[in-house]
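Reply to dn_fold:

You asked what the input looked like. This is it:
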Amino acid sequence: MSALTPPTDMPTPTTDKITQAAMETIYLCKFRVSMDGEWLCLRELDDISLTPDPEPTHEDPNYLMANERMNLMNMAKLSIKGLIESALNLGRTLDSDYAPLQQFFVVMEHCLKHGLKAKKTFLGQNKSFWGPLELVEKLVPEAAEITASVKDLPGLKTPVGRGRAWLRLALMQKKLSEYMKALINKKELLSEFYEPNALMMEEEGAIIAGLLVGLNVIDANFCMKGEDLDSQVGVIDFSMYLKDGNSSKGSEGDGQITAILDQKNYVEELNRHLNATVNNLQAKVDALEKSNTKLTEELAVANNRIITLQEEMERVKEESSYILESNRKGPKQDRTAEGQALSEARKHLKEETQLRLDVEKELEIQISMRQEMELAMKMLEKDVCEKQDALVSLRQQLDDLRALKHELAFKLQSSDLGVKQKSELNSRLEEKTNQMAATIKQLEQSEKDLVKQAKTLNSAANKLIPKHH
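and this is what came back:
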């Protein structure tokens, strides 16, 4: 921090700039962020003031910026590491409601905002990291699709919202690290948006870009249309990373229990979804069967109508031929009446022919509809068979689990019975051991008695031997 002038009515531009930056990210200049293993340590700095001091101080602004860069880098390390570990333990696709993922985006937003140059507009000064992110499509052509998608989103009205949407789409594409590396390598382009000692212009930015490679193992899915990215408040939640002696002991067990409960809920939800799908498909099959029977009846009626029309047409032909023959043989006086009857018969024949053509067209339409219905029924039957196979496999797995449970229970009972038998055998062995010990003692005592008797006999024999001599 540069030297502050004596107190006046208006603060100096340097002091105002430092105060504004400190109020935006108050943790950056009031605390020193460091890492203790997997935890976050915050140490308060007493030598930094957020308001102008009446007495001039001699703080180096480069030191403050370096401290902010180090804090942001440590926060990024903790956020990325915690996100990867929690996502791997969770074992499913992440969405926008996942708390570690939300904190990661907040930390990335602070990293991209660090050292931004303020652009003057008619509404005042504006700081937005959307400008640097727009440059990525010029460096990496694959990013053009993300930028176009962000611009086409109807709910985004501010550059901050567009930048947040861009970060989410880049993470979904698993190209966030690649895009950040390409952007950091072009410092001559970044100098238009950032101060010389900003995080994106220094070594810490390259380190964070390297750490982002680990996020490629995460699968994320976001729904941008219903999410309000313009009005979100980016505040870092330090409670997720601060060390707690009481809660850290059971964190591993709680994580395992949470993972098991998540898997159980996922299987139950999948089962409910499959049951609902099977019910819907069964209802569609019933509806198609009803429509098929209805179409069959209509087809039979149309065939009967065609047969009757053909019979009427044959009859009309016979009548017309009979009338023609009678006209040739009959008197000329009756030809006018017969001609009128013939014209009426021809008119009737024309109408019947047109009606037959209409019926044939309708029949063709009904036949095509029936073929489409049969094809749809086959597809639905195939889908139902697949769903039923999936249900059968799930039920088989459930039966296997139950059989395994019964087998384990049986083994447990047999092991308990074996333990009881072994304990009884052990007690019997102890009794026999005690009996053998008593027998050994008796044998030892009898052996001592025999030794004494032998000694007495020896002494008696020794006494008898000299007497004989």
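Residues 1-15, 17-30, 46-58, 243-249 have pLDDT under 50 and may be disordered.
Hope that clears it up.
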